[in-house]
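Re: that chain you flagged

S.,

Sorry for the slow reply, it's been a week of failed gels. I finally had a moment to sit down with the sequence you sent. For the record, here it is as I used it:
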Amino acid sequence: MRIYLITSDMKDERQWFERIDRILKSGIDMLQYRDKANSTLTIHETARKLKILCKKYNTPLIINNRVDVCMALDADGVHLGGDDLPIETARKIMGPEKIIGASARTVEAIKNGEIKRVDYFGSGAMFDTDTKVDAKKISKDQLKLLVDSTSLPVYAIGGINAENVHQLENTGIAGVCLSAGLMLNSDPEGLIEKIKGM
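Prediction finished late last night. Pasting the structure tokens below so you have them in one place:
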């Protein structure tokens, strides 16, 4: 199963980058830089440093909702939610080669994303999450329905950690998105190895 890291809020810059380096070294499949709090200047500078780290480990760097930052830094792609720039507009700006991921909770959203040429879907929230407190949960059956409705990769998201990730086995998902589950884990390498074996 693939592993997709979504960065958590930064409190101590040195420790934050050290943790991300440690996670990347363990061999994850994608990294999304998510920052809803800071200025565009800070986001740009942090993303620039992340790009250097991701290049070191040959890991695609996805920027959450900021097409401008992605293009300015020539990052690998963006992830777009329902309130972000429309997918078709992002694709027009970014061209066919960049990765575009989209959040999808319904089959209708999946079909819409396919038409607009997204590359993968993030679906959830699967569990309670402090990262996005207003996220509405979906059931395991709903997740399976979404997976079965598309040939594109679907990543489960929302409150996934070492204690509950096993509940997502046999759902057909391409992988899992983790934020605090990895960023705050004392043994991220152990969890990554466990998920890869699922």
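What I noticed first: Residues 63 and 128 are 23 Å apart (CA to CA).

Talk soon,
D.
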